[in-house]
């Protein structure tokens, strides 16, 4: 399924689906997680200049959502997310926690590896801690 704009699903259709419904569409092979990640990146490009909530996208994760070999066990595995820049983190990625003290600080370990087991979701980027 591809729209005339090249997106996997129209914006009108996309807003009718929550994360679980999107995961179900991937499970039914109507969409791929790569298509969802690409559309999420497109949404950030369109909306973020007005709301200034996203600190950055992980272009490598958008291009290859399985890059960090996350566990496929979770129901939301195929749905892109954004990490709050506070607490959660990905190894080797910038995490400033909204503080000048941590400016340009890189995370050494994956937070969820010790809390929830290996990679229970995949992140497309990080968002400001005070973003809505």
In short:
The protein has 132 residues and is α+β, with helices and mostly antiparallel strands. Helices cover 32% and strands 10% of the residues.
Describe this entry's structure for a reader.
The protein is globular and about 45 Å long. The chain has a 3-stranded mixed beta sheet. The chain is built from 5 helices and 3 strands; from the N terminus they run H-H-H-E-H-E-H-E. It has one domain (11-127). It is an alpha+beta fold and 132 residues long.
Comma- or semicolon-separated keywords:
132 residues; alpha+beta; 3-stranded mixed beta sheet; 3 strands; 5 helices
Topology of this protein?
Layout: H1 11-14, H2 19-27, H3 33-51, E1 54-57, H4 59-63, E2 81-84, H5 111-115, E3 123-127
Parallel strand pairs: 2-3
Antiparallel strand pairs: 1-3
How helical, in percent, are the residues? 25-40%
Low-confidence regions: 111-120
Main beta sheet strand tally, sense and closure: 3 strands, mixed
Strand content range: 5-15%
Quickly count the helices. 5
